[in-house]
Amino acid sequence: MKDALMRRIEADRALLIEFLQRFVRCRTPNPPGDTLAAARFVEQTLEQRGIAYQTVAPAADRPNYIASFDTGRPGKHLVLNGHIDVFPVESEAGWTRDPWGAELVDGRIYGRGACDMRCGTTASIFTYLYLHELREHLHGRLTLTVVSDEENYGPPGMLYLMKHHREQVLGDVCLNGEPSSPYSVRFGEKGPLWVRMRTTARGGHGAFVHVSPSALQAAIDAIAELQDLPNRIPVEEAPDLARALDEATPDLERAYGKGAAKVIRSLTVNIGRLQGGVKVNMIPAACEFDADIRVPNCADHEAVLAEVRAIAARHGAEMEILTASPPNWREPYHELMDIVRDNAALLRPGLVPARVVSPGGTDARLWRLNGVPAVVYGPSPHGMGSVDEFVSVDEFMHVVKSHVLSAWDYLSRPRAG
Structurally, how many domains does the chain consist of? Predict the structure, then answer.
């Protein structure tokens, strides 16, 4: 059956490529977050294949979809997950291809969302479509979730489904196709803590620095303390986590660049935006900056938050939490992890994806934070959030085949329930 599935997917190569190109052309940048163009495309695909689905839209312009079938035979519940919003295109300057054109050039499909995550969401959709045809051979339940508002961790997206449709979408394990690179499969991710700080002062003439402190200098001093956080927060890794990441070090560097293995295990601080002052000869009366803090697994997320609050207080800054989600990981040696790795090696002899933690965040965290393993295997993050984002056709087909075969393996095995 796996041979037949591989032949079927290969026979559908042109169809799959065309689907991905049309999907990429659906403009759904977030912000602003309106995903209706891609949502209609997903609806049409499911309806054309005769797939029953449920629309859940707490925000009318960013719907979510659930499709599910139960085989009637005892088994596990596998949930597939992908999102349909994408990063915005800040400027077309620097792009060598139309960011919404989905041009196929030299074996690469270019466009915003090509790798993050129209490739992975396509893999989830077609995994569901192929296995729906073969459901008489399977055990347990398969559920497809296609959601909006992932890029901003927004409440109308997977957060809403997990809160209000938990029994439908939690399952026993999740498979997700966010960019990971073929060389790594993820079992966890760091926790994002995004904060905004605002400092104020009386201000004054730039020659009379004795009359007022500088709001900009106060912000700079607060930033310096934030950047020292890695030296203040201990990280004591659990044995299974440490073992998996030790084994993965060479592959982490290959997948994400030199230094990635250390970054993934460390607290990091990035100041993404700084704005203050209006004129060179004036003391700034107001300043605002945003900090992206990533908390590694086995560091105390609450302790980090408390320290950040203390830094804001010491510098007289008003602080706003933009996003806060704890680091998360589950079972690096889970059965589905092994299945995905085996199928990757089957498709590309010699390739054995390393078990890793992600530096970035995804909706997969919501399963882990609710006690359920979530496995992430997707394409390389070429141009993700930057210019000339692309996915190679070879990696795209590899991801689709890996997801289909892995879901088949997981659900075709008889179980006690």
Answer: 2
Tell me, what amino acid is at 277? G
Q: Domain containing 265: what range?
A: 191-324
Sign of CA dihedral 131, 179, 58, 166: positive
Residue whose C-alpha is closest to residue 30's, from 97, 94, 84: 84
Residue 153 — very low, low, confident or very high, per pLDDT cuts 50/70/90? confident
Over the stretch 342-359, which tens digit does the pLDDT of each residue have?
999 999 999 999 999 988
Q: Which two tokens stand for residue 47?
A: 């309806």
Domain end residue (candidates: 324, 350, 377) = 324
**62 band by pLDDT with thresholds 50, 70 and 90:** very high
Domain boundary among 270, 300, 324: 324
How many Å apart are CA 339 and CA 232, to the nearest integer?
A: 39
Same domain, 117 and 244: no
Within 13 Å and on the Cβ side, how many CA atoms surround 22? 13
Q: What is the pTM of this model?
A: 0.91
d(CA 313, CA 307): 10
**Quick one: pLDDT at residue 416?**
63
Q: What is the pLDDT of residues 66-118, one digit of tens each?
A: 999 999 999 999 999 999 999 999 889 999 999 999 999 999 999 999 999 99
Domain of 399, CATH number, reads 3.40.630.10
By DSSP bridging, strand 354-358 and strand 184-189 are parallel
